[in-house]
Structures are given as structure tokens and as C-alpha cells.
Amino acid sequence: MARIDYFNDPDAPAANSIVPSVTVVACNAEGALLLIHKTDNDLWALPGGGVDVGESAPEAAVREALEETGFEVRIIGLVGLYTNPHHVMAYDDGEVRQQFSICFAAEITGGSARTSSESKEVRFVPPSELDGLNIHPSMRMRIDHGLGDRTAPYLG
Predict the structure, then answer these.
(1) Looking at residue 1, what is its pLDDT?
(2) What is the pTM of this model?
């Protein structure tokens, strides 16, 4: 399903749903960041997705990382809570979802790179090469927070 992200755009459609979602910041031994090239909006992003009924947010983060990248991860911390009501995602089925994302820090514990229906490419990207990728501003904020030396999670 295709989607369009609106970020602080006064012409954005009004949200009609909110779905808790998760993202994962995980780096390899060389410090390169695990990213996916998404199929729904053609942007580079952290692995992640919606929390399913019956699972916790950390469980969803572990599941989504494996589903989208092929890598097993272990949650080691909280990067932040991203709930900007002025960031909405409009899907081609009429749903307009308000952002509600919990970003976790994780370490890679196993697996190997593979794509999925949601990821057309899986790659470890050195932080110095992030500026060359098409990354949504909200996702880039999570990446910068996850790679930075923050003493407390972002709450916003």
C-alpha cells in the first residue's frame, strides 16, 4: 500500500487514526546503522512497524527488525517517543495516521540481511553517508537521536 508522509504541512489531510508503532536503531561492529529502503514510500528508514494486539512495544520492535531486515536484535534502551500530531501518513485506502512511534536502541544478536515485502533493500550505512540518502525529516530526527550522546530519551 502506498503512502505519503506530511510533516508540519498546513495542507496535510486530517488524521483519522493513530496506531502505536516502533522503530529500531541498531549498528554493526563498525558503527554503521541498519537501514531499510521502504517499498511503500521509497524512503530510507529505520526498521519498524505497528504493534500487534497481544505484544509489547519491545516485542514488536524485535519482530519488525527481523521481518524487515533478517537480523535478530535485543532491545537495550529507549531512544525516544515521537508523537508529533503534525506528522501524518496518508495511505491510498483513505487512512490518515497520526504519528505515534517509540524508537528503541538495540544490538544485533544474529541473522543475515534479507529483504521483505516492506523493504526492497537492507543495508548498513556509515553515519557519514546518511546525508546522501532520501530520509524523511522525522525519521532522520530518530536516527540523529539514536546515534547521539543523549542522556535521556527524546519526548515529543
Answers:
(1) 66
(2) 0.93
What would the pLDDT profile of 90-112 be if each residue is shown by its tens digit?
999 999 999 999 999 999 999 99
* pLDDT > 70 in the chain, percent: 99
137: which 3 cell numbers? 525529516
Domains and CATH numbers, the chain: 3-155 (3.90.79.10)
What are the beta bridge partners of residue 82? 101
Q: CA quadruple 71, 72, 77, 78: dihedral positive or negative?
A: positive
Pairing assessment for the beta strands 96-98 and 33-38 based on DSSP bridges? unpaired
